[in-house]
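Researcher: Go.
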Amino acid sequence: MAGAVEAKLAELGMTLPGVVPPLASYQPAVQSGVYVYTSGQLPMVDGKLAVTGKVGAEVTPDEAKELAKTCALNALAAVKSVAGDLDRIARVVKVVGFVASASDFTGQPGVVNGASELLGAVLGDKGVHARSAVGVAVLPLDAPVEIEVQVELVEA
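Model: Structure:
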């Protein structure tokens, strides 16, 4: 049964996807105490990347911002897979965004805003977090963006 967080997603016209299977030897998310740490989430939709390439070259900043939103949705699915219920999220603690960037692209924070804004829209004050936005040369599968999230849970 979907809780308040998933109801808010539905209200925003989104649905929680299935957990993206790992591409290598890792888990999509792990829980340690009251914290859940996600692995880096790519903008996978139905098992494949919607777009590939570097932001500021083949991918526009606006496209990349939307892809960061997809990454955040995938991260929420990974959190749910170990927490059982997204309503257990006490707060998002930290978001780290990696942006595969053309050599002259410096708008990484604007791209990662896609993830931050989604978390804020869905979780309200619980979605306010610390963050890093990092430009990198290349990401797995030539993805334009990758997002990882750390959340604190209320005890079950």
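Model: The chain has a mean pLDDT of 96.
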